[in-house]
Amino acid sequence: MLLDTRAMRYLTAxxxxxxxxxxMGSKNHELVPTPLIERISRLKGGPSGVHRxxxxxxxxxxxxxxxxxxxxGYRLTYGxxxxxxxxxxxxxxxxxxVGSRVGVGKESDIMIVAxxxxxxxxxxxxxxxxxxxxxxxxxRDYLKNxxxxxxxxxxxxxxxxxxxxxxxxxxxxxxVPEPIAQSRHTIVMxxxxxxxxxxxxxxxxxxxxxxxxxxxxxxxxxxxxxxGDYNEFNILIREDxxxxxxxxxxxxxxxxxxxxxxxxxxxxxxxxMYFDRDVECIKRFFKRRFHFESTTPGPFYxxxxxxxxxxxxxxxxxxxxxxxxxxxxxxxxEAAIREQEAKSSxxxxxxxxxxxxxxxxxxTGDEDEEEEQQVIGTIVPLxxxxxxQKLTINDGT
Length: 397
Description:
By secondary structure, this protein is α+β, with helices and mostly antiparallel strands. Among the domains are: 76 residues, Orthogonal Bundle (Arc Repressor Mutant, subunit A), CATH 1.10.10.10; 132 residues, Orthogonal Bundle (Transferase(Phosphotransferase), domain 1), CATH 1.10.510. 37% of the residues lie in helices and 18% in strands. It has a five-stranded antiparallel sheet. The protein has a four-stranded antiparallel sheet with strand order 1-3-2-14.
C-alpha cells in the first residue's frame, strides 16, 4: 500500500474527530454504525457535519463501506490508520515531512521521514493485514474476544513489541536503531547509514563478520532472547573507519540488528527450533554468498541456554514483559505471524478486504505493485492555513 499524505492538508478538525471516532468504534465493531460515529465524534454541527466529514474521509480512502453490509456503517482502512498515526507523530514533532518508501515487505513498509529540525529518520509501518486474516478469525480462538478488524489489533501489537524490544536492546548496548516514538502500528526510529547484508556481494574478511554475527546470537541468548528472523534481510552493515589501522581507507563492518516482531524468549516452547534456524540462516547465507564455511560446529541451543542470565546480565525477555507487552499480547501476535508464514509458504495470495470507497472502487488497489526504492526522494513539508505541520510524499512530479 502506497503512503500518500497529500490529503492531510485538507482535513479539518472535524474530519480528524470523525476519523478518530471510527477508530474508537472499531474496537468493538468491525463495521462501525453511522449513529455510533455521530455519538462518539460529538460534532457541534450535528449529524449533517458528521456526514459531511464521512463523505470527505471516504473520498480519499481513509474509511470505507463494506459491500453488502446489513446496516449503514464504515470501517477504518489502512490509509485511515496511517493518517491517525502520522497525525500523532506530527503533533509531537517527531515527523514533519515524508519522503520515499525505501523498503517494502509482506509485513511492513519503510519510509524516510524528517522531524521539524530536518533530521532524517525512519518510519516503519506494520501491515500484518497484507495477508488476509479471515481464516485466522474463523479457525483460531485467540481473537474470539476481539470482533474488530484483526489487522489493526495485530499490526499495533507488532509495533508495540518491536518498540519495546528496541528500547531494552538499546539500553543494553546492542547495535540497533534508536527507538524514538511509537503510535498505533508505526514506529519512528533513527536512520543508520548502512546497507542490508543481502545487498553486499563481497567483503574482505567473511570470517570476521561471520564471527561477529554468531557472537550477537550468543549475546542475545545470554540476555534471554532469540531474534527469530535472523537473516540477511534483517541485518544492516555499517562501515566504520578503523582508526587503529595505518591504511586511511580501512573500515570495520559493524552489523546492526533490525526487525524484532518475531523475537522470542530462550524459555519459549520452540526456542531450540528458532535458535537453530537463526544460526542456520547465517551459515547458509555465508556459504552461498561469500563461499565461506566455518570449521567450528554450532553454536548449539543447549550450550547457549546455560549462559542465560549468567554474570548478572539482565533478562531482556522479562524486561519487555514488565514494560507492558503481556504474554497474552505475545500469544496473539505469535499465532498471527505463524499463520502468515504458513500462508506465504503455500503461495496464497492476499484476499481483498471487500472494501469500497464512495466511488465504488476497491480500497485495496495496487499496494504491492511498486518496486522497492533505493534512492531517497526529496522530503517535502507542508503547512495548512493555521500553520499546523502537515505531511506529504514527493511523487516525483
